[in-house]
Amino acid sequence: MKVIYSCYWGSCLAKVAAFLHLGYICEKDDIAQSLFCDIRESRFGELVFVGRDEMGMDVFAVGSKRAGPVLAKALTGIAKIYGFPSDSVQLVELNHLYNFLIWLGIFLVRKLKLTSWGTKLIALGTKKNFGKLQAAVQNVIAKPIYIENEVNR
Amino acid sequence: MKVFYCCYGSAHSSVVAAAIHLGLLPSDRLPDAKEFLVLPHFDKTESFEIGTPFFMGRDEYNSEVYILGMGGERALIKRAILSFLGHAGIDTRDIMLIDTLRNVNLITKIGGFTSRRLGLVAIGRPLTVFGIKQKYGDFVKLVRDVKKTEQNRLT
Is the CA virtual torsion A24, A18, A11, A81 positive or negative? Predict the structure, then answer.
């Protein structure tokens, strides 16, 4: 199974969610500015491997702009065509967790090249929605496929 | 080999290209309107189905031919599919993702929007057929080029 966390840029919320999933960060204070230093447009759509979790699931982050729902259907469909089980791809859309601070931070980084101020705002905005991000990740880990795998181990 | 004809909503241009590829539409003459309207998925795919690949058939080389609507982010979706297959250990030379939207003219776009978005099928559907007939030669050429590439990859 591949768990793909998706947000507009792929390098903000999706990355933090993947880090949370893998246990690389546990609390909101673990969120460092350095997490957000690779906001680059050229990586849209590229699945960035973040790590493998304790259940052996590959965890990815992807920047999908606003095409997350279409991307989820496309990847699920392609996975089926290539003979993978229908639940082998789990795309988690996180665009709804962007807030004003994150958007403003991205604007500062990308348009005004104010990287230091921008990443500070992104980190602040992400911390503000940290509980919701945690809940989204927990929701994935609580899925039956995870529990089944644990039983089979 | 798997060939995916990709457009916005998998309702018009991708269906026509896949149909030419599979011989459901002729390559040597201009089809009449009825021949388009009986094609599976032609002007029928709903908005919520965008992103879902549909199997259209197998061609003479035993390759599977699909249609796929990618919405407004075709480059992004293509990159994601290839990236996904790469991570899954699948040889991406086995897949062809062909953009058919470049053969769509303004008339087809207006027709598609009127039929699929506004639900005015009686007005939009004939417009899509009219627009596609105007560009039919380009579709035939596109499919011919795809088959050449397909043949080269298979040999």
Answer: positive
Question: Which residues span the domain enclosing A35?
Answer: 2-96+132-152
Of B49, B50, B53, the CB nearest to A78: B53
The mean predicted confidence, pLDDT, of chain A is 87
B90 Cβ under 8 Å from any chain A Cβ: yes
Nearest to A63 by CA among A139, A5, A137: A5
A149 alpha-carbon distance from chain centroid = 22
DSSP character at residue B11: S
Is A67's CB within 8 Å of B52's CB?
no
> Of A125, A42, A142, A131, whose CA–CA distance to A90 is shortest?
A142
Strand bridging mode B95-99 / B2-7: parallel
Residue A35 lies in a domain: yes
**pLDDT tens readout for residues A51-82:** 999 888 999 999 999 999 999 999 999 999 99
HSE-up of residue B1 (Cα within 13 Å, Cβ side): 19
pLDDT tens-place string over residues B69-101: 999 999 999 999 999 999 999 999 899 999 999
How far apart, in whole angstroms, are the C-alpha atoms of residue B114 and residue B96?
Answer: 30
Picking from B51, B75, B85, the nearest residue to A73 by CB comes out as: B51
Spatial separation of the C-alpha atoms in residues B41 and B68, rounded to whole Å: 11
Residue with tokens 């004809």: B5
Q: What ipTM, to 2 d.p.?
A: 0.92
d(C-alpha B84, C-alpha A137), whole Å: 21
Nearest CA distance, A44 vs chain B (angstrom): 6
- Give the predicted TM-score (pTM) of the model: 0.90
- Domain count within chain A: 1
Do B69 and B11 touch, CB atoms closer than 8 A? yes
Q: List the Cα angle B39/B78/B2 in 5-degree steps.
A: 55
Does the CA dihedral B54-B29-B132-B3 come out positive or negative? positive
Query: CA B67, CA B53: separation in Å to the nearest integer?
Result: 6
